[in-house]
Amino acid sequence: MSTIRENLESIKLNIKASANNVNRSCEEITLLAVTKTVDTDKILESIEYGVTDIGENKPQELARKYDIIGDKVRWHLIGTLQTNKVKYIIDKVHMIHSLDRESLCEEIQKRAEKIDKIIDCLVQVNISKEDTKHGLYVEEVIDFIQNVSKKYANIRVKGLMTMAPFSKDEDEVRLVFKSLKNLSLDIQKLNISNVSMEYLSMGMSNDYKIAIEEGSNIVRVGTSIYGKRNYNN
Questions:
Q1: 99-120 residue pLDDT tens
Q2: Which of 74, 86, 121, 172 has its CA 20 to 30 A from that of 64?
Q3: 172: three-class secondary structure by DSSP
Q4: For residue 221, what are the β-bridge partners?
């Protein structure tokens, strides 16, 4: 049996078990296969074994792989998005997970208007306030989202995204995910126009089981599907 197939089966069992722990249905959780540095043949193999959503960190890589694979899957841009790279993915992407500043909103709006497309986005939140992570601080998020709602008609905020610290302390990780969930509930109560808190994108290979227990419905898993990769390429 293919290693990728075995890995996917194992992850799906873990997703189901974690969902069961908190009386959730595994059907409501999307497994987003993160394909940074992964060749298209391996991506196609994972699609064959049931992957429906692909996450790429770099816009040009997403565009290159899209040209080969096309719309067999939904493409998500999950890495930091520079304004000058929006043009590469605007007509290809299902969702952008890293909306975090006004200049990016302006560029997405401009490009989306040109092709008459509404772009679904998640606002990236830096819960742990780590210098190495991008995203808005919790206290900035509501004002930012209200501003997006007022000014950018072609951007639809569909939820939030965060990354937990890479820590062996499960309580520390859990607290980050819990905080994002609580923030999403606060935003939901405000009933902001053109904004929903449908998605919480949180949890990666090392912590997706905890994330699911804390309310995640998009887990971004790469290493556990495709194996360890060389990120120096």
A1: 999 999 999 999 999 999 999 9
A2: 121
A3: helix
A4: 33
